[in-house]
Amino acid sequence: MGPLGKHSKYSDGYFMFPKLEGEIAPRMMFQGKEVLTWSLNNYLGLANHPEIRKADADAAAKWGAAYPMGARMMSGQTNLHEKLEDELAKFVGKEKAYLLNYGYQGIMSVIDALLDRKDVVVYDSECHACIIDALRMHMGKRYVFPHNDIDNCEKQLERATKLAAETGGGILLITEGVFGMTGDQGKLKEICALKSKFDFRLLVDDAHGFGTMGKTGAGTHEEQGVIDEVDLYFSTFAKSMASIGAFIAGNEKVIHYLRFNMRSQIFAKSLPMLLVEGALKRLELLQTKPELKDNLWKIVNALRDGLHNNGFSTGKSNSPVTPVVLNGTVGEAAALSHDLRENYGIFCSVVIYPVVPKGMIILRLIPTSVHTLSDVEETVKAFAEIKEKLTSGIYKNSELAISFGE
Fold first, then answer.
1. Which residues, other chains included, contact 131 with Cβ-Cβ below 8 Å and sequence gap of 6+?
2. Which of 87, 43, 65 is nearest to 295 (CA)?
3. Which of 165, 167, 217, 354 lies 20 to 30 Å (CA to CA) from residue 237?
């Protein structure tokens, strides 16, 4: 059952598969108590924005959940699907875009369609599980470089170039705009600079950067000034857009190829119209209400400053994702998390081994535009107290930690 599964009383429904109830907001209900939550990927606060709620309700009343019936290629194509694709492409600085039903499934299908056994992949070691799963399907060679290690990335490109010359294939380099666990940006600018030495196509998964990074919110490629150098730009609607769906954007010829070769879209029902209309409204607000991103970053900076002023490390994060790095066992992590939820009313994701090395605990905070400065103050104060308890050994000697046998 894994480390947390050992503690049956609190495992299912508490540490794993917890149920947050009520309206999506910074404060929700958990186990019958109100908690201040920092674990919702609702960066711009659109999940319960009144204009979004109205647009979603109007679209549901107009179309229901079924329309259109059928896959895009067969009977599921509409003008609104095409409109959303055109607006997404323009926003992220690409010629064309193609809608995808889901993020995880979508990026897997993109990678699968792009590659054949002759092609070689170079990728960052910290790429998301969806990318790793896609590469497991690849029947050709792949080379991995340590996270954001550009020198090693160059070495892997050298290896890939030699192999591609033998196979007659191409090279696809995959990284992320913002890494969702650590919060640091992928080194897109440095990777793009390597194009002067190597011939490769760059695919960027910017799930956490779309809507949050760059002057206009177009993404991490805008933030780093490499919009034109990124060949394929991917993002999901599940983060800043607070919805379901995703898209891939790039050169018109490549997108045209993907439309006819992505099995997850060819053999799947079209994205329902209520989600398409909802995404159009979300994209409109993302572009016309810069105050949403501005307020997000006000909260991000206040939270980070407060944590740093109290001696906490947030690693190398330079995005809204805010990991608080602590030292401790799995048992201490359980006790600490339980204390935060039950006695301080704070709910955040706790990341433990095997996601991170043994002896490390990460409290992963996701600030949003709808958090307040008082929420930040309350959280920093609570974290200072739980850090003191962790350092003094109170959690290590707790009944909950002892039950883990650590």
1. 107, 108, 111, 123, 174, 205
2. 43
3. 354
Contact 294, 365 (CB under 8 A): no
Amino acid (1-letter code) at residue 6: K
* Same domain, yes or no: 182 and 211: yes
Query: Within this chain, do residues 9 and 118 fall inside the same structural domain, yes or no?
Result: no
Inter-residue contact 147 to 126 (CB < 8 Å)? yes
371-377 average pLDDT score: 98
133 and 169 together in one domain: yes
What is the distance between the alpha carbons of residues 74 and 270, in angstroms, rounded to a whole number?
A: 9
Give the pLDDT score at 4: 47
This prediction has a pTM of: 0.94
25 and 54 share one domain: no
Three-state SS letters, 141-192: CEEEECCCCHHHHHHHHHHHHHHHHHHCCCEEEEEECECCCCCCECCHHHHH
- Residue-wise pLDDT for 57-77, tens only, equals 999 999 999 999 898 889 989
Q: Are 175 and 207 in contact (CB under 8 A)?
A: no
pLDDT digits (tens, 9 = 90+) for 15-70: 888 899 999 999 999 999 999 999 999 999 999 999 999 999 999 999 999 999 89
Q: Note the Cα 384 to chain centre separation in Å.
A: 27
